[in-house]
Amino acid sequence: MNSLSNTIRTALSALSLSLVMAVSCNSASSSESDLAKSPTDQGTCIREICTVRKSDGAKICYFKVGCIRKDGWDTLPEIKFWRRIVTLSKDSVLANVIENRRGLAVYSKKMIDSLESIGRLSQFRDELAIKFRVDSNNHIRFTSGRSHFYRFDKIAGKMERGITLFDSFGVDPFYAQSVLLIESPGSDRQKSTAGAYGNFQLMPFVARQYGLRVDRYLDERENFDRSAYAAARLIKEICIPYARKWCETYGFEVDESAVWFKLLALHNYNAGAGTVKSAVAALPGHVKGNDLIKTLWKTSAGYFRSEAQNYSQLALACYLEFEQQNMLHTEENRVPYSKN
Q1: Pair (116, 178) in one structural domain
Q2: Which one of 119, 144, 169 terminates a domain?
Q3: In this structure, what CATH number is given to the domain that contains residue 320?
Q4: Global confidence as pTM
Q5: What is the DSSP string of 113-164?
Q6: What is the pLDDT of residues 88-130, one digit of tens each?
Q7: Is residue 59 part of a domain?
């Protein structure tokens, strides 16, 4: 590999080479390997409501879905990529290949910004492509860490309530857990640029549709129970039925108990059923099951693009990270869950 130009070396020196954290993204930690080998992940899809005790005495409840690991979702490069991003500091960036989400190395965001300011970032990309043997038809991107947003420690205390409420509404707790981990894990007062708000990131018109008060004096999207009620109804009455409808309309199998189908319903929650319809319509007819979702990740149609494609990837990545964090503690209880 050719050495960096003097200009780039100067930028690196000024920022200190200690800021450059070249980290391999291909190996799993020992705890991760142990989890993957767990005998509970063999055979059928194990679904349990698990309660674990943390070292400080606090108890955390979460919804365990064994087939996420059994079916190999955790081995996919897209999921590994997002797991790295949701645990990476905002002061760092992950160099990665856009086309396949292959992680290359972690660098200081300050260093990357400096290289861009002096017009040398493209040359640095070329150097990385040579070093990591990236195909000339692929492109390298620098994605900032988001651990400051994905604060699983802050949402953990609300997980049991979300699971309990969704179950009482007749909706699979998988959806409650997924939305809570993705949408606003750090605070119930997060508001998106589109106007979505609260732990379940409901739009104003959706909240009002399900009886929540949203006006200048009161916004019930801040109320966890009320917000959970509206989110559960949205999933039960819109997201799941339309996931089924789009599959039937375009000739795909329907299995509402499968993880891939639940991920498709989550796409409806995030992007809207009409947007997801255009993407499902563009899928090749031979894909089925898990491959339907994997193909959806690479399908752009209408407004179904990067952010929408990423949503179910984040659902899986956030679940796996949350599970791993909780599995580090002493397990207290497991209750089999067979509904939905």
Answers
A1: no
A2: 144
A3: 1.10.530.10
A4: 0.86
A5: HHHHHTT-HHHHHHHHHHHTT--TTS-EEEEE--TTT--HHHHHHHHHHHHH
A6: 999 999 999 999 999 999 999 999 999 999 999 999 999 999 9
A7: no
